[in-house]
Amino acid sequence: MKKENENPVVYRDANYENQVRKDLESSKVALQSVLDVWNSLELIPCTDIYQLIFNPQKIYSDAINKLAIVPVTAGRFQVSKQAFINTLDIPIPDQLYRAAKQARQLLGGVPGLWAIENNEVIMVEDEASVLIEKNNVYASGKKQIEFAEKLNSFISTLNELNELTGGTLLNHQFAFQYWNGKIQLIETDDRHRKAVLIPEVLKVWLSNIK
Questions:
Q1: For residue 13, what are the CA distances in angstroms to 19, 24, 58, 72, 196?
Q2: Euclidean distance between CA atoms 119 and 31, whole angstroms
Q3: Are 151 and 197 in contact (CB under 8 A)?
Q4: How far apart are CA 146 and CA 207, in angstroms?
Q5: C-alpha to C-alpha distance for 129 and 157, rounded to whole angstroms
Q6: What is d(CA 61, CA 93) in angstroms, rounded to the nearest whole number?
């Protein structure tokens, strides 16, 4: 179970959180597709979706080897298992490999994030929360909280003034040079710049406030 941070959150990256949630949903769909393809091969049940998407060739080969029982024949010479498998009409795994490759490119490859229940891929909520809240910043103590409040207010005011002045405060190259490594300047829909806090930098600043 995820350990809750009892300190107050002083910064949340809403855009990041929304993007992660979208990526999680896309990943779940992709993983379910992998599982459905696997089940359509009618081999053995899948118990580890993570292993299936990262080692589909091995999982498929192991399943075939497990199910292919070489008949015992009389006489001196026996048929090897691989030779016996070559005589069988086994399912083609190409679609499985393609689906697994697509899932690996998403969040399907995060260990511990996914499980299988009743042939359905489910998200492990505690692990998903860790991803979603990755950029959260917490304050410890009154001074850190006050600093974070002032900093958030400053960023909000800076963005508001930049908007009112037609982007003149943040669009200039000197602004990039000055704020580089302190805050991030991102482009908005109206081609202006918007200041946003950098979580890792904020954590460093807060750590210096005792």
A1: 10, 17, 40, 64, 9
A2: 11
A3: yes
A4: 13
A5: 30
A6: 10
* Residue 1 confidence (pLDDT): 54
Task: Label residues 92-121 b or e (16+ Cβ within 10 Å = b).
Answer: ebebbeebbebbeebbbbbeebbebeeeeb
Helices (H) and strands (E) in the chain, counts: 9, 6
Please write the tens of the pLDDT for every residue from 127-152. 999 999 999 999 999 999 999 999 99
- The pLDDT of residue 164 is 92
Closest C-alpha to 25, from 108, 117, 126: 108
Q: How far apart are CA 153 and CA 148, in angstroms?
A: 8
Dist CA 184 CA 203 (whole Å): 15
* CB-based burial, 4-28: b 16+ in 10 Å, e otherwise: eeeeeebbebeebbeebeeebeebb
